[in-house]
Sequence to fold (271 residues):
Amino acid sequence: MLTIPLEYYLIISAVLFTIGTIGVLTRRNAIIIFMSLEIMLNSVNLTLVSFSSYFGESSGQVFVFFVMSVAAAEAAVGLAIFLALFRNKNTIYVDEVNLLKW
Amino acid sequence: MTLSLLFFSILAVLGISSAIVTVASKHPVKSAMALVFHFFILSGFYLTLNAQFLAVLQVLVYAGAIMVMVVFVVMLLNLGDEEKLKIRYNAKQYLAIGLACALAMMLVSVFVVNFDLRQFDPNLSLNAGTVTALGKELFTNFLLPIEGVAILLTAAIVGSIALAKKKLN
Fold:
């Protein structure tokens, strides 16, 4: 039997989103920033799925499908950028890559 | 009723702690492994929400494809520990954490205060997450976005090859 209130899922996803935000704001390894970004995307997915289940609508889960495909595309391009970055600057820490800063 | 709540709380504790390990551990491989675990826990959440197709897709796409790519890049770059992790927590970092906590307060308070959200109705959602329902939605109402996603994925493949290549000529 599934009798968990909807708020519980929303609070869990809010907490996960916040953890991801902390990771993006405080870490300097670009790959870990990327992983924190994935946590944020997944927390939003959890919100979408829980709303979709609680209201009996499939379209929320279709949105999750699209978020997943965009995340896959982002992963491919982002990791290629990290490789190119490492090849050129020999670092992947975002505070050492300050070409566009002055 | 209590059993489902127990299962939910186990999932919640595991999910949040694995997310914290992902964000806080020094070595990228450790965070990647914690993130794989986190994706499995999220797939468990989807199962409790009657979203079977997305639970399978979560394991296939995230824990399978994306994390393999991330771990591959981590191994390829051969990064060590992030040495300055502790020292670098200066005022700006504390400001960031404070802002994130404020964001958490806002996000949680919106849901807690007084939205009269409906109780879970298992009969309503039993068919929302099946492959049949999702496929029907995807190939009728969302046909154009599906084609857009196909183009996006093709562009991402071409772009990532172009970016990761040694020389562009």
Notes: Chain A has three helices and no strands. Chain A has a mean pLDDT of 87. Chain A touches chain B through 72 residues (CB under 8 Å). The CA atoms of residues 41 and 68 of chain A lie 9 Å apart.
